[in-house]
Write a structure and sequence with these properties.
heterodimer, A: 377 residues, mainly alpha, 15 helices, 75% helix, flat, B: 230 residues, alpha/beta, Rossmann fold, six-stranded mixed sheet, four-stranded antiparallel sheet, 10 strands, globular
Chain lengths: 377, 230
């Protein structure tokens, strides 16, 4: 085996994302199945609310679960790529010794285990609060009381992702390891096609460096944008949902949003700082100050952060508008949804404070990058 | 003037401590051309690193003029390097995704040196301004590293085995350019090498062995880069 379980555990981001996805899906799918059992008791007056509730369950599963599942797939691709890059010499030696690409890649199936850990945790967690969830859903007389039952078929949402992600991990590793053994031993750097790119002579060194750092890792730009999108959409939705659904639902969305945002941002910004350690050390060796280095390395990431946050806010407005003003419009007693400016102001203030605090934390990490790290090659 | 007083530097933990510099005392006059000679593991690169403020000493003092750098904070030490020091590493350490022009501007911008292109030209890299390090030979990359250090207009230039990875012709050419510029501009030059021949180009030669200075000699008639053996 080329990858240990300990290595797989480092994939904490995927564990948390899968945990959230399974947690949400198990809650709503279990409730949805039990909701089918009361179909015969639904009166004509309750029919619209019943249909809307079933639709709501499916939408939450598809949107939240689907988004989280896709996020974890993107994370998996990123992490495995990063892992192989970090350990390329080890993989190169195995290949040079005569191990086939597939045999080496097969070791990466162990990464599917972290998906299992996350899925099992999410499944257990959902059962821990299932009773309370049903109590909240049964609150009021809109629908008949729905009794809680255990549905073994839902264990598939633990098993299937584990199998799927294990296979995906092997496939990604197989594709990444197709490079010649010698190249992997030398650090896995593929000879890049040299772009004839005229550098802007009017730009200062630091400006050019900032654009370079920013443009070099588009995946990280995506993660910063995505993290802030999650923050904007889910925190705002969580705050607004308390009014239209329940406190529990609101807190659930809020916590998932916070976890996803924190995870994506920490992952992306730590990769930016880690990936530019040598550049940072060179800047320090030459006498560039912390403020200049911090701005050059992290400054431009404010752009995707702001864009992600803005899109997230608009997205949550769209989703809630459709859900409440269109899907639930015919359910008696449902309030009309309008954009919650007060929640937005709170969300914006918290976003600015949190992002800048995180930025400051990583600037301090830049300060701690030893100058000697450039000489330890 | 640089004064080094009883400098001690160790690496490792208490139970596995390795003392690399064992009480170094020396004085370097302004505008001097100093070569530090020593075998591998003698502590010459560590001495260069502590002299230039890249690393901190465990004990002792390093004083530049009337400024003691050993008691500076990290921020002050960065400012010191910015104002005073230029560094040429053996392994070049160019930024791979930036052109020659921008790599040299890394140093030039710090000194607000608008005429940095002259340095690039005089190092024979005028036609490589928009090339990336991976498009250059080893010798060309080292010349870019030298241009970057010189573009900072340093008061003291430190070079760690500057010709170690170069062939003879390129090595001589590079050394010749730096020596001429040192005479012209009058900055202090401190070079670390294991090559005895390069020591013949210096005014002062410091021999280091096992973390101690064993000899300091003055060279009354330094030779040029093309006169020495290789």
């Amino acid at each position: 085996m080329t990858v240990s379980f300990k290595d797989a555990l480092k994939f904490i981001g995927i564990i948390i994302t899968v945990c959230c996805a399974v947690f949400v899906c198990n809650l709503f799918l279990n409730y949805n199945i039990d909701l089918n059992a009361v179909a015969g008791e639904i009166t004509e007056n309750q029919q619209i609310a019943y249909t809307a509730m079933k639709l709501n369950n499916k939408v939450v599963c598809a949107v939240t679960g689907g988004c989280l599942a896709m996020t974890s797939a993107v994370l998996l691709v990123f992490y495995i790529g990063h892992y192989i890059k970090q350990h390329s010499a080890r993989f190169g030696i195995l290949k040079a010794l005569g191990y086939g690409d597939f045999k080496v890649a097969a070791g990466c199936a162990v990464f599917g285990l972290c998906v299992f850990v996350g899925a099992a945790a999410g499944y257990a967690l959902s059962w821990a609060i299932m009773g309370r969830f049903y109590a909240v859903q049964n609150d009021g007389d809109v629908l008949p009381q729905v009794a809680l039952h255990y549905h073994p078929v839902l264990l598939l949402i633990v098993i299937l992702p584990t199998v799927f992600y294990s296979a995906l991990a092997v496939l990604i590793a197989y594709l990444k390891l197709k490079a010649p053994a010698l190249m992997l031993i030398k650090g896995g750097k593929r000879e890049r096609r040299i772009k004839v790119k005229q550098s802007r002579s009017d730009r200062s060194f630091l400006t050019e460096l900032a654009f370079n750092v920013f443009g070099a890792r588009k995946m990280l730009v995506f993660f910063v944008g995505f993290g802030c999108f999650c923050f904007g959409s889910m925190i705002l939705m969580g705050l607004s949902m308390r009014k239209y659904a329940s406190d529990m639902m609101g807190y659930m969305i809020l916590v998932i949003g916070l976890i996803l945002a924190a995870m994506s941002l920490i992952l992306a910004l730590s990769a930016v700082v880690g990936g530019n350690a040598k550049t940072i050390a060179m800047l320090k060796a030459n006498g560039y100050g912390l403020k200049e280095s911090g701005l050059a390395v992290l400054g431009l990431y404010h752009i995707p952060a702001v864009i992600g946050f803005a899109i997230g806010c608009v997205y949550q407005w769209g989703v809630l508008n459709v859900m409440i003003n269109i899907v639930f419009s015919s359910v008696e007693g449902t309030a009309h949804y309008s954009f919650d400016w007060k929640a937005f102001a709170i969300c914006l203030a918290v976003f600015i404070a949190s992002y800048e605090a995180l930025n400051l934390f990583f600037v301090q990490r830049i300060a701690k990058t030893p100058v000697k790290s450039i000489m330890s090659e | 003037m640089i004064e080094v007083k009883k400098v001690i530097k160790s690496y490792g933990t208490a139970d596995n401590k390795q003392t690399v510099l064992k009480g170094i005392d020396l004085t370097v006059e302004d505008g001097d051309n100093v070569v530090i000679l020593g075998a591998s593991g003698s502590g010459k690169s560590t001495l260069l690193n502590v002299l230039s403020g890249l690393e901190r000493v465990d004990e002792g003092k390093i004083v530049y003029g009337d400024r003691e750098i050993t008691c500076l904070s990290d921020k002050e030490l960065t400012a010191f390097r910015r104002e005073t020091v230029g560094f040429v590493f053996q392994q070049y350490y160019l930024l791979p995704d930036m052109t020659v022009d921008k790599n040299v501007r890394m140093g030039a911008d710090l000194a607000k040196n608008k005429d940095y292109k002259g340095i690039i030209e005089s190092l024979g890299l005028g036609d490589k301004l928009n090339k990336y390090p991976r498009q250059l030979s080893g010798g060309e990359q080292q010349r870019v590293a030298v241009a970057r250090a010189l573009a900072k207009l340093p008061k003291v230039l430190f070079m760690d085995e500057p010709t170690g990875a170069l062939d003879e012709a390129t090595g001589r050419q590079l050394l010749d350019y730096v020596l001429k510029l040192q005479k012209e501009r009058g900055f202090t030059l401190i070079t670390v090498t294991h090559n005895e021949n390069i020591a013949k180009t210096a005014n002062t030669v410091i021999r280091l062995n096992s973390g101690k200075i064993v000899e300091i000699t003055r060279n009354e008639a330094p030779e040029s880069a093309y006169e020495i053996g290789w």
